[in-house]
Structure to design on (266 residues):
């Protein structure tokens, strides 16, 4: 089974969808087989990728046993990445979706679908609700975007407590992929917040890569494409390539620690 990384945060507006789309796209450029799942009933990533142009169906239809995975996991034109949306169009579907998440059925579907991919990135809804709990219960790790604001930082401990609770009760293998600082700039307040974060967490918890505020991400969003496909957005795209490389490097180091690197090739 591939690695399931849920991109989640206690707060909205921190760049979860942008991070999911662009990190997944960047890893696919490295030759990885990547699946992006939009588990937010509002369908932010489905809109950000223009998925609705291909299909209106998604997770909700899988939960209702109306479709098969291959009918709703839409491959990109280069076949390097697949995208699955929530498929929610009616208000009553939201209640059904949340109920199925609490039952564990949403997590089961994601676990099965992810088996054919190297990486599955799940864009989670903001907050601490049942959908997020269900996702983290089946995830390999969680990537936590935190924007450069005092409110986002001060409320972060509540979300970290949720991660520890899920690890203790449901998913002992759940790892913290890292805290990703987003929407950073060169202001004194942002610098102060970043330094405070680094001083209050153990080494390695805060990712080295930071995502700066860049209008290129908004322009890419308007065109429903990753920054890497937008002309003139090379600098913005490179930031997420750096993040993808950092995550891949961390993963490789972790595997080295688990095994015995002195055994040789055969």
């Amino acid at each position: 089974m591939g690695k399931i990384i849920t991109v989640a945060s206690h707060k909205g507006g921190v760049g979860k969808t942008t991070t999911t789309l662009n990190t997944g796209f960047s890893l696919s450029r490295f030759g990885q087989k990547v699946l992006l799942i939009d588990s937010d009933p509002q369908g932010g990533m489905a809109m950000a990728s223009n998925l609705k142009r291909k299909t209106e169906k998604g997770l909700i239809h899988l939960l209702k046993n109306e479709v098969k995975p291959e009918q709703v996991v839409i491959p990109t034109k280069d076949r390097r990445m697949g995208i699955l949306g929530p498929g929610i169009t009616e208000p009553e579907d939201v209640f059904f979706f949340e109920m199925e998440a609490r039952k564990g059925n949403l997590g089961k579907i994601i676990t099965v679908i992810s088996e054919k991919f190297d990486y599955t990135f799940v864009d989670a809804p903001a907050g601490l609700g049942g959908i997020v709990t269900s996702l983290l219960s089946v995830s390999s790790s969680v990537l936590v975007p935190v924007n450069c604001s005092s409110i986002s930082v001060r409320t972060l401990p509540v979300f970290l407590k949720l991660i520890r609770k899920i690890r203790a009760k449901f998913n002992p293998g759940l790892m913290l992929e890292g805290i990703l600082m987003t929407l950073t700039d060169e202001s004194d307040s942002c610098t102060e917040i970043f330094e405070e974060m680094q001083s209050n967490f153990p080494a390695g918890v805060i990712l080295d890569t930071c995502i700066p505020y860049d209008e290129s991400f908004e322009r890419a969003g308007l065109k429903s494409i990753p920054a890497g496909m937008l002309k003139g957005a090379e600098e913005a795209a490179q930031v997420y390539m750096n993040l993808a490389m950092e995550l891949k490097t961390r993963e490789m180091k972790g595997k080295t620690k688990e095994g015995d690197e002195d055994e040789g090739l055969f």
About this structure: The mean pLDDT is 93.
